[in-house]
Structures are given as C-alpha cells and as structure tokens.
Design goal:
- This protein has about 350 residues and is α+β, with helices and mostly antiparallel strands.
- The chain contains 13 helices and ten strands.
Length: about 350
C-alpha cells in the first residue's frame, strides 16, 4: 500500500463540481487521494486496506469489507460533472476496482481525465489536512468545508467569508427538484448540521451564519469563519454590509440604467461633495473601479445571484465593499477569471 500523504490537494474546479457521495464513499475517495504525492506526474494503482479505513473512520468492522467494497464499486460508476451547462466534462471517479477478500484490500485506478484536477497543481487549487475530514458523519460537511477552505487565503490568517446562493448549493450537491423544496428544510437538515461538524471537528471556527433574502425568500447564505490555529492579532473592522435586493427594485425596464451611468454618477457625486482624501473615499474609489472592471470585462455572470439583474449585481457589489478585505476578495476573484487591473498591468510591464 502506497504511503498516505497528510494533505489533500484538489483543483478548485473539482471542488466546485457537481456530484453527490455518501459518507463512506467520501472516506474511500479521500483515502485514495491522500496517496497522491506532490511530485506524481501520473496516476498509479492505489491500494486500500479495509481494516485501516474502518478504524480511521469508525466504521463497523464486522461489515466494513462489504460497505467499503460497495462504496468503491459505486465510485466506479457514479458521475461527476466538472463545468457548467454550456461546457463541462462528465466522468466517473474510478475506472477499475480490483477486490480481494482474502487480503482485505482493494486496488483502484483513477479516471485518467482527472489528472489535471489532482496532479501537478500549481495554481487555482485548495489543500487541507486529511485529519480534518476523517470523522465527518454528515454527508454534506465535506463539501461546505471545502467551499470554506477555498476562500480561507482571502482572510490572510484572519476571518474570511463565503456567500453561496441556494441555487448554487442545489446544483453542486445534486439535489433533485423534490428534495429540500423548502429552504428552511435545507437549512435545518443540510447546512446547519454540516457547519456544526466543521466547527467541532476541523481547523475552522464558524463565526457567523446569515441567510439572506430577496423579497420574502431566502436566496443565499453568508458564512463567516476563521482558522483556529495560530490566528494573527485581530484588527477591528466593520462587518460587510449584507444587502438583500427587494422585488420592488430593479428588474423593471423603466428603472434599469447602464453600468457606465452608475460609475459616472458615483464619480460625479464624490466630486460635487468635494470630499477630503480619506481611507473611506479611497475605498469608495476602489469599489467603483472594481465594479467598472467587472462591467468592462463582461464578467457579471460570475458575480450575479440567481434572479438578479446585471445592474442590481453591480449595485450590490459596490454596496458590499466596505473594507479593504472585501475589496481584495472581489479583486482576487477577478484575478481567478484572468482579469488584471490596470495598475497591475503597468507593474508587470
């Protein structure tokens, strides 16, 4: 059996993929991933010891072989979709599983098309200690943990946050139309149990959870967290403004104006008021620049909430940028999309 690595490392595209696994399927998958090492250029055959997995994950040893074998065989046929409805890749996790009851082991091959998402990762990836996910019992804890770890670097050792729409959660976790039709049921049976386990068992502390509404319906969830280990000295900073868009705002054609008008009006307002140069006015200027860059680069679809117009998305983003940290979050997301600011281009040249 290949020696396990303590670190799990995945492409962010894989973390945001559409798939759904049971707890035991997750144990099997991540015990295989943990055997991948940083310098591996190709997949190998990965051996799993049934007894070791059972002991590490508190699986009933009497039935462990049957449960774990079935989970591995399921991963040989369960589909994962990387991408979106317009362009994506559909494949299975494994391509072969050789089982041997006399040895109590499994020999597994990864699907070759997963190489770009698990091997030789240099950028746009997330990594975490395998021990943090070993005791999860809630099947959704792992996904929310990975969503959080994906954004942890934005906090630079301090607190950070993620915001996911309910539509995004339903899509990535592969819920059917009949499952959790009431958002309160998803909150009670999916989100809250997952965050409870993350808070109790991992290196992250959940600081705040807010369910944001559009009109009367919950549209998205805001989760604020911080690393438990070796936090840096905290600075006093304001909470981001969480703006819920009302049904009365916006989508009527009479009320929609173009983005350049929004940016122009913001600039002229500051000019008319003849504000002194302060950190606040500098931040407002930066917010306008970020909104303008999103608009010019035609990247609004990457920032919009469901049922939100492009113009409403720009207004919301501009209102949310109340600290340098939040501005960094949006600028980093632009960088992930390959969009570089003017000042960064000049520095590179």
């Amino acid at each position: 059996m290949k020696q396990q690595n303590s670190v799990i490392k995945k492409s962010n595209n894989l973390i945001n993929a559409k798939y759904r696994l049971t707890a035991i399927q997750q144990y099997v998958l991540h015990n295989v991933i943990s055997q991948i090492h940083i310098n591996d250029a190709d997949f190998k055959k990965y051996e799993l010891n049934i007894q070791s997995i059972a002991e590490n994950h508190d699986i009933d040893t009497k039935n462990a072989y049957r449960y774990i074998k079935k989970a591995a065989l399921d991963l040989n046929k369960l589909q994962i979709i990387i991408g979106d409805t317009k362009r994506g890749l559909a494949l299975t996790w494994f391509t072969s599983v050789l089982y041997d009851s006399t040895r109590g082991s499994l020999l597994i091959d990864f699907h070759k098309d997963l190489k770009p998402y698990l091997l030789q990762l240099k950028s746009y990836f997330t990594q975490y200690e395998h021990q943090n996910i070993k005791r999860f019992k809630c099947v959704h804890s792992l996904r929310f943990y990975e969503f959080l770890k994906q954004k942890q670097n934005l906090g630079k050792g301090e607190d950070f946050y993620i915001e996911l729409t309910i539509a995004e959660i339903r899509s990535m976790l592969c819920f059917s139309d009949t499952e959790y039709k009431k958002t309160n049921d998803m909150k009670r049976f999916v989100i809250e149990p997952a965050l409870k386990e993350i808070n109790e068992q991992t290196d992250l502390k959940i600081l705040d959870t807010q369910f944001l509404k559009v009109g009367r319906s919950i549209d998205s969830i805001y989760i604020k967290a911080e690393p438990k280990l070796e936090p840096k000295a905290k600075k006093s900073k304001a909470n981001p403004k969480l703006v819920s868009q009302q049904d009365s705002e916006s989508t009527s054609p009479k009320k929609i104006m173009n983005f350049s008008s929004l940016i122009k009006n913001s600039n002229s307002q500051r000019s008319d008021e003849k504000q002194p140069i302060t950190k606040e006015s500098d931040l407002q200027k930066r917010a306008v620049e970020i909104v303008g860059q999103i608009f010019k680069s035609k990247a609004t679809s990457s920032f919009k909430h469901s049922h939100e117009s492009d113009f409403d998305a720009m207004k919301r983003i501009k209102a949310e940028i109340t600290t340098e940290e939040i501005a960094n979050h949006f600028q980093n997301k632009l960088k992930e999309l390959g969009i570089v600011f003017n000042e960064e281009r000049s520095e590179e040249s």
